[in-house]
Specification:
The chain has a five-stranded parallel sheet, with helices on both faces. The protein is globular and about 45 Å long. It is of the alpha/beta class and 220 residues long. It is 46% helix and 15% strand. It binds adenosine-5'-diphosphate and adenosine monophosphate. Adenosine-5'-diphosphate (ADP) is lined by residues 7, 9-15, 123, 126-127, 136-138, 141-142, 201-202, 205.
Length: 220
C-alpha cells in the first residue's frame, strides 16, 4: 500500500504519518524532513534549500524528486510508503509517476486532509517537537503528558521550526492553493482520491485513514 497524504501545511500529515509508521508498519517519506536533515547536515542540497525554506517558497522539483527516488531505493520492497509533503506541484506529480514505475510500485490512494485555513495558522504557530526523537506536539492541542518531558522518549529538549511563523505560513498556504491543490484533479481522474475531515481530533482522523486503507493484514 503506497499512499499520498495531501493537505496544506499544518493539516496533520506528519502527525498521521507517525501513527501509520508506528501501528501500520509503513514508512514515511517526508521531503520536508529530508530537507531539514540536509540543512542540519549542511550538505550542498541543504545549503541551497535553507533560504528557500525559510521564505516559505518551494525547493526545486528536481531536488525533491531526487530525494524521493533515493529514499524509495532504500525502502524494503514490502514496506508501504506514505508520501508526506510530496508531490507539491504538477511536475512533481508527473515525476512521481515515473519514479513509482521505476521502483515497481503502485499508488493506491491519495488522502486529502481537509482543514479550515484559519485554524492552520493557529496549528502551525503552536507546533513544536522533541529535539531528540522528533515526536510532534502542540501548545494547546497536543501537550506532553508530563510537562516538559517527551511522551515517546523521555527527553526534555524541544524545538520549533524557523519557518513556523505567521508570515511564512501565509506564503506556504498561498503556494498550496496555487501549486499543490491543482494536482488533485489528476488523481481524481484515476478514482483514487479520498477526503477526510482533518479538523477532527487526531485519533478520529487516524481511525478514518485506517478505515480507508485497511489493516496491514488486509494488504496481502
Ligand atoms: P503537517 O505535517 O501537515 O504540516 P502536523 O502533523 O505537523 O502538520 O500538524 C501541525 C500541528 O497541528 C502540530 O503541532 C500537531 O501537533 C497539530 N495537530 C495535528 N493534527 C491535529 C488535530 N487533528 N487536531 C489538533 N491539532 C493537530
Ligand atoms: P513541510 O515540512 O512539508 O512543511 O516542508 C517545509 C518546507 O520544505 C516547504 O515550505 C518547502 O520550502 C520545502 N519542501 C518540502 N517538500 C517540498 C516539495 N515537495 N517541493 C518543494 N519544496 C518542498
Amino acid at each position: 500500500m503506497n499512499i499520498i497524504l495531501l493537505g496544506p501545511p499544518g493539516a496533520g500529515k506528519g502527525t498521521q504519518s507517525a501513527r501509520l509508521v508506528e501501528h501500520h508498519g509503513m514508512r514515511q517519506l517526508s521531503t520536508g524532513d529530508m530537507l531539514r536533515a540536509a540543512v542540519a547536515a549542511q550538505t550542498s542540497i541543504g545549503l541551497r534549500a535553507k533560504a528557500v525554506m525559510d521564505a516559505g517558497e518551494l525547493v526545486s522539483d528536481e531536488i525533491v524528486s531526487a530525494l524521493i527516488d533515493a529514499e524509495l531505493l532504500a525502502l524494503p520492497e514490502r514496506a508501504g510508503a506514505i508520501f508526506d509533503g510530496y508531490p507539491r506541484t504538477a511536475h512533481q506529480a508527473e515525476q512521481l509517476d515515473g519514479i513509482l514505475e521505476k521502483h515497481n510500485r503502485q499508488l493506491h490512494r491519495v488522502i486529502e486532509l481537509e482543514v479550515d485555513e484559519e485554524a492552520l495558522v493557529r496549528r502551525i504557530s503552536g507546533r513544536f517537537s522533541c529535539a531528540e526523537c522528533g515526536a510532534g506536539y502542540h501548545d494547546e492541542f497536543i501537550l506532553p503528558q508530563v510537562p516538559g518531558t517527551c511522551d515517546r522518549c523521555g527527553a526534555h529538549e524541544f524545538k520549533r521550526r524557523p519557518d513556523d511563523n505567521e508570515h511564512t505560513v501565509r506564503k506556504r498556504l498561498q503556494l498550496y492553493r496555487s501549486e499543490t491543490a491543482p494536482i488533485l484533479p489528476l488523481y481524481e481522474q484515476r478514482g483514487i482520491v479520498s477526503r477526510i475531515d482533518g479538523m477532527a481530533p487526531v485519533d478520529e482522523v487516524y481511525r478514518m485513514i485506517v478505515k480507508l486503507i485497511g489493516t496491514p493484514s488486509e494488504h496481502h
